Amino acid sequence: MSEKIDQNRREFVSVAGKAAAASVVAPGVLLHSIAHAEPRAEPVTDAVRYGLLIDTTKCADGCSDCVSACDKENGLDLLGKPDGATDEDWARQKPRWIRTVKVKDRLSGHVSSLPLMCQHCEHPPCVDVCPTGASFRRADGIVMVDRHTCIGCRYCMMACPYKARSFIHENIKVKLSAVPRGKGCVESCTLCVHRRDYGVAGTACADACEHGAILFGDLNDPNSDITKALQERNHTQLRADLKLNTGVRYRGI
């Protein structure tokens, strides 16, 4: 009898665990497809290096689809304006993992509109200055922040030449279980690391771009689409003079 009860209990716990994985920290919002995927069984290695190629010649002026997709994927769209904050303050302090910026060539005067996110440097300045080790680079090239050890000093924000990191000023009442966030922590683009660790392809920004301007893939794989695209035409790194060997490359600037 006890063996049967134990088996029933195990089945109940299994079902309850799967249901919890498909939810968010607040009721009423469901997680996306990773709820039905299995987590990685093997450790992260440097056999791969994830990155993006962004073709600014294909970016439509005024388009913000990649920004909206990033916000939805990571729960940034669930964050409301704090009480008493002005629209101007909120626009300045609202967390953004992708910003749309304009870059002007000093020689030609050509202006390019492009999405700017964490560049996932091989030699990230944010990691160098972090006093607790909260900023770190994974073996697969993804630069992240451990919210459990982040003390909110914001040294990494000052060190980042791309201004790619945001600080969370307010309590977050609603958040996705796959993307934990918390007040007093720094955060930035993770190349949808939750997808990487659950075997789900692509990134939210690349999937949402109808113009084909964003390509995601493995920079170490000579047969990957991103590697072939990099070999076909010229590309550049933002602030290549810093020799950070960024994982995000741009074309058309």
Overview of the structural elements:
With 253 residues, the chain is α+β, with helices and mostly antiparallel strands. It folds into two domains: 2-36; 50-251, Alpha-Beta Plaits (2-Layer Sandwich), CATH 3.30.70.20. The protein has eight helices and nine strands. It has a three-stranded mixed beta sheet. Strands 2-3 form a two-stranded antiparallel ribbon. The termini are far apart.
Output the keywords.
9 strands; 8 helices; disordered N terminus; two-stranded antiparallel sheet; 253 residues; 2 domains; alpha+beta; Alpha-Beta Plaits; 3-stranded mixed sheet
Question: Brief overview, please?
Answer:
The chain is α+β, with helices and mostly antiparallel strands. The chain is 25% helix and 15% strand.
Give the topology, please.
Blueprint: H1 2-21, E1 50-55, H2 65-74, H3 87-93, E2 99-104, E3 111-116, H4 125-129, E4 135-137, E5 143-145, H5 155-159, E6 166-167, E7 186-187, H6 193-196, H7 204-208, E8 214-218, H8 225-232, E9 248-251
CATH architecture of the largest domain: 2-Layer Sandwich
- Helix/strand/pairing category: alpha+beta
If strands are numbered along the chain, what order do they take across the biggest sheet?
A: 8-1-9
Determine Rg (CA atoms, Å): 20 Å
User: Mind summarizing the main beta sheet?
Assistant: 3 strands, mixed
Estimate the global geometry from the Cα principal axes.
globular
Beta-strand segment tally:
9
Secondary structure: helix percent: 25-40%
Q: Overall mean pLDDT score?
A: 85
Top CATH class of the largest domain? Alpha Beta
* CATH topology term of the largest domain: Alpha-Beta Plaits
- The N- to C-terminal Cα distance equals 71 Å
